[in-house]
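Weekly puzzle thread! Below is a chain. First person to post its structure in token form gets bragging rights.
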Amino acid sequence: MRCGTTGSLTRTEGRQARMGFVHVLVYVLEAFIVFTAAILATRLLGKSAIVQLTPFDLMAIVIIGTVVAEPLVQNGTAGALLGAALLVLLHVVFSRLALYGRINKVLLGEPTIVVRHGRLVVENLRRNNLSVAQLLAILRSSGYPYLDDIEFALLEPIGQVSVLPRDGARPVSPDDLGLPHTYRGLPLPVVLDGIVKSENLALARKDRTWLEKELGRLGLKDSSRVLYAYVEHPDTLVVHLKDGTVRASRPERLHYTPER
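Winning reply:
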């Protein structure tokens, strides 16, 4: 009788051990799926979710992290600690995998050109959910308020914007060499995505009548085709159209020849 009881207990303990092992494997698999899902969700948000967090970008990332991690913290303190340890381990593993070219392309993506030869690459901005206003703010903070000073600007996989200035706009300035130069002032955006910025027109001491007249001189009936337009001191209007071309009321003030 005792032998039967002992055998039954042994089999029960064996089943419990196997179930425990299976439970751990399932938990590890869940952690892997959760971590991968979070990476994919962040990738789908676009690089703008990293480069410059807006309130909705921040909330999206926080909520995604909370939702996908919830299955890992439903098992009490021990489960939460194990989940945290697994996520750290997965982070290390994915970081190592990112060292390999093909895998890195899948996990992080590739640099994207957002400015080419002084012109905005509209389709790449839209593809990465980066607005013109956001990009201009980043470029200004990098010391490049004028697009025509930029040979290339790349939106990096890590979310930063790298700027390659044209030869004449590199750190050594005309002042350093004692060369004469023309004052350009702060480029005030007067049109963004087809919308006229009246407050910036006022700061530039211009009005809508002046803007409409200048647009007309450039062959534009209104601002609907304009992606970005700014006033350069004292009275030059530079227009970047949604088709990627550039027009200017005084082309000689630009370093790149505008297209018509």
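Puzzle host: Confirmed. Bonus trivia for everyone else. The first strand starts at residue 112 and ends at 116.
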